[in-house]
Amino acid sequence: MPVCLDANRTSPDLAEHAIGSDFRKPGSRRLHIGLINNMPDRAMQATERQFVKLLDAASPGISVHLSLYALPDVPRTEWGRSRINHYYSSVESLWDKPLDGLIVTGTEPAAPLLLDEPYWGSLAKALDWAEHNTLSTVWSCLAAHAAVLYLDGIPRRRLAEKRFGVFECTKASDHLLTKDLPSGLVAPHSRWNDLRESDLVECGYRMLTRTKDGGVDAFVKQTKSLFVFLQGHPEYEANTLLLEYRRDIGRYLRHERASYPEVPQGYFDQNVTEALSVLRDRALANRCEDLLADFPLGLLENRVKNRWLSTGARLYGNWLRDIGAQKLKRSRQASNTGLVKVKLKKPVARSQVQL
Fold this sequence. Notes:
By secondary structure, the protein is an alpha/beta fold. Helices cover 36% and strands 20% of the residues.
């Protein structure tokens, strides 16, 4: 397996990825990547699995040592805290060592303003740390929104409708991360907020991919580390949007949201969409949670396909190869100059973001 986790920090569902002899083969390319998983408890295991699968598909010929972390201020149940205690490394230990690369996920917002989120302070600390102690970091979805707000004061904007589904994309520029991306780019999106391309460009960000309707999909900024920002979710599995759609229907039926959710765009075929409209009509006529039992989950799971894996694997493969090239270059420079150790820079928080 190209992706390996610490044997004493590997959950039973990922046991096949526990570090073994293959990872220790001399001469193999090894990258130490961290994943700060901030997803809610119900999505924690799925997110672990999704990123392991994606990095596995992206890293033929590259050994990836993946370590799991979580920000301490993200609200958790007792189950979530227990899982973190058993299978995650302490985020405090992260501040004392550099990593080759880092991936930071988002989470469901709990406050109208990102600055008011309970984890804002620890996420800001992770941003400062990552800039000085990684070769590159990926900021995913809400984490991307928080990062550009913290770095450059760029606010996200609320959308009238949820950006939800599988969207066709185009390359916005030639970049090492977009090299050899497959034709027919698609990316899953699931978010209520958006970033304006004009705001990003004005602050020095470079667009990598756009959705066909002109929305921002992926973009980068070179700081002391290469920061990569994704509004989409190339890590999603085939049924992730399906499960989220069912969850949102349940929230409507329990009166936890005002409107019935729209069918995810570009995800179901026409026959499935028409069948789901029947359930929608019933729910609008009789808003009862019992109707959720009629959602044909098992049938639909056989009708959805992962059409974005090749795009995500190529993007992350390019990311890993670039990190490997940077690591080799720095190692040679250090060898040539007699430097064997880079001094670690501890994170120092920036001043309060001004909006």
